Amino acid sequence: MSTAELHTLTGAYALHALPDDERQEFERHLGMCEACSQEVRELSATAARLGLAVSRRPGPALRDRVLSEITTVRQEPPSHGALSRSTGTGNRARRRTSFVLAACIAASAAFGGVAVWQNQVAQDARQEANRADERSEQLAQVLAAPDARTTSGTLKGGARGTVVVSRGENRAVFLTSGMEQPPAGKVYQLWFDEGGTMRSAGLMDPSAASEAVLMDGEVAGASGMGITVEPVGGSEQPTSAPLALMSLPA
Amino acid sequence: MREAVHISGAPSPGPDLQELLVLVARGDQNAFAKVYDAVCGPVLGLVRSVLRDPAQSEEVAQEVLVEVWRTAPRFQPARGSAMNWVLTLAHHRAVDRVRSAEAASAREHKAALLDRTPDFDEVSEQVETRLEREQVRRCLRTLSELQRQSVTLAYYRGLTYREVSELLSVPLGTIKTRLRDGLIRMRDCLGVNA
């Protein structure tokens, strides 16, 4: 569908009158079109006025049921500022958003250690991932795996890092927030530690201060992971002292 | 067209509701009871206009209100008012229900869909609601017939624009455009800022 055609969908979108596939296409477009987003906000607020106009007060029984039900329903964790952050354009921005979302969710889960909403968290992460690419799907699978285990540590410089490993999926995800930008011409590189031998697990996006990265390659026999600063493009073997070394959870 | 009378720029429970939701997001059940009192009428009314069936409507309204509790920590004021957020949730839930396979097979036929207008005439004890209803009704009258039908069928009956197009025997592209320009005219008439 052309951009001009997409733009006329603001009304149908605000009224929830698009079939799922077209809604998803339009939402991708929304991420890139500030004018459309503004119009959608206004038209959604207009639709809500149509809703207010048919207000109909329920009987007291509903109040009792709802107020009693909420005492047994756990609330979702807040969405961090990172969620509304929009950087870059197009698919890339969307993909990043779902990484960040997955990271927030997993980080809260890891740090909070609350098992109760683990399932819900996993579901949310998977739903988000469905909209992004296969890689982020895999990432979500690791976070959502029933055997996912986490280790957290503090990196040199004070940032917090968490590694989530699923032995079943044989993959690992590295989550971090608050990392400084690498120096010019450098990138952060991730490693698996296999009995002292470092195997590259890919590079981190240099523009992200907070993200979740699916580590390249299988966990296999690795017992730890590390992160180093390397020249852009990465290195075969680490060329600097690690910012952090963490044992992988068993 | 008569002169637009703006009683208030936004639905009046606005700022209070927003503050209450912040408390709800921290797990405050008393604050939630107040939120419930402010939004239960609009939620049930909207769900009922889409679903018609009273029992099913109460069930979905309950789901929506519990979802407000559950997802309050995710509410972002920057994206719109609290009432908007709640009513968007309610509309989505109601529409999802009506579009589910089971409901689709029991979908009313064309004549019934076209005949019924929303229950604007029901007596309401609340002055606020009466004013809101009056304003919306007056603004709907400023739309063209096709704009009004498209917007109300999509919103109050939960039809997709394709269904609206089939029902009214009007091309898809025209319906898309009417949904947009109809809502834009409503926005201007109601004086909505967002």
Q: What do these coordinates show?
A:
The complex is a heterodimer of chains A (250) and B (194). With 250 residues, chain A is of the alpha+beta class. Chain A has three domains: 3-68, Arc Repressor Mutant, subunit A, CATH 1.10.10; 88-144; 149-247. Chain A contains nine helices and eight strands. Chain A has helices spanning 3-7, 10-14, 20-30, 34-52, 60-69, 81-84, 90-112, 118-131, 134-144; strands at 149-154, 160-166, 171-177, 186-194, 197-203, 210-214, 224-231, 244-247. Chain A has a four-stranded antiparallel β-sheet with strand order 1-2-3-6, with helices on one face. Chain A has a four-stranded antiparallel β-sheet with strand order 5-4-7-8, with no helix packed on it. In chain A, a hairpin with a 5-residue loop joins strand 1 and strand 2. In chain A, helix 8 runs antiparallel to helix 9. The model of chain A is unreliable at 80-122 and 128-132 (pLDDT under 50). Chain B has helices at residues 14-25, 29-51, 54-71, 82-99, 101-105, 110-115, 127-140, 145-157, 161-168, 172-190. Chains A and B meet through helix 2, helix 4 and helix 5 of A and helix 2, helix 3, helix 4, helix 7 and helix 8 of B.
